[in-house]
Design goal:
The protein is an alpha+beta fold. The protein has a single domain, classed as SH3 type barrels, CATH 2.30.30.110. The protein is built from two helices and six strands; from the N terminus they run ββββαββα. Strands 4-5-3-2-1-6 form a six-stranded antiparallel β-sheet. Strand 2 and strand 3 form a beta hairpin.
Length: 151
């Protein structure tokens, strides 16, 4: 990872399946955060051996074109009931498990979402993978299509 800002605030360790607010870079390799904040799904977490700093691999999230779900994508919709509630997303959002990046888990790339003004970290909500979850079925299908075994 080429980007490094020593002044950034490093967030405490997130959990796999957390949905966070990030400035996902638009170009790879990236030279810094992207211009627009958006939701992302934490898929993998690694820690530097000599510090309490974390790097997270995240899947891209968007609320655009959610009616068109392509292989490797899944959506969390208002019609998903409890799964939508625990995600704390504001609108139907799809995640692309084929579009992932490893990012530093710091304030340059992640921030609390604006609709949760008292949040102390970038976490919006969680991916509901309970056995009765409709989202779990959609997620498992996208995971299979994306051909990865994280989370």
């Amino acid at each position: 990872m080429a980007y490094r800002d020593e002044k950034a605030l490093w967030w405490p360790k997130p959990a796999l399946g957390d949905i966070c607010w990030t400035r996902f870079p638009e170009e790879v390799p990236f030279s810094g955060p992207g211009p627009k904040p958006r939701p992302c799904l934490i898929c993998k977490i690694s820690k530097a051996a000599d510090s309490e700093r974390y790097q997270v691999t995240v899947a891209y999230g968007t609320s655009q074109s959610v009616e068109a779900i392509y292989p490797g994508e899944f959506a969390i919709a208002k019609t998903d009931g409890k799964s939508f509630s625990v995600s704390h997303l504001k609108t139907t959002t799809k995640f692309d498990l084929r579009l992932t990046l490893a990012l530093p888990y710091n304030s340059d790339f992640f921030s609390p979402p604006p609709w949760l003004p008292h949040a102390k970290n970038p976490k919006i909500g969680v991916l509901d993978l309970s056995d009765s979850s409709k989202v779990k079925i959609k997620f498992e299908q996208a995971k299979s299509e994306a051909r990865w075994d994280w989370l």
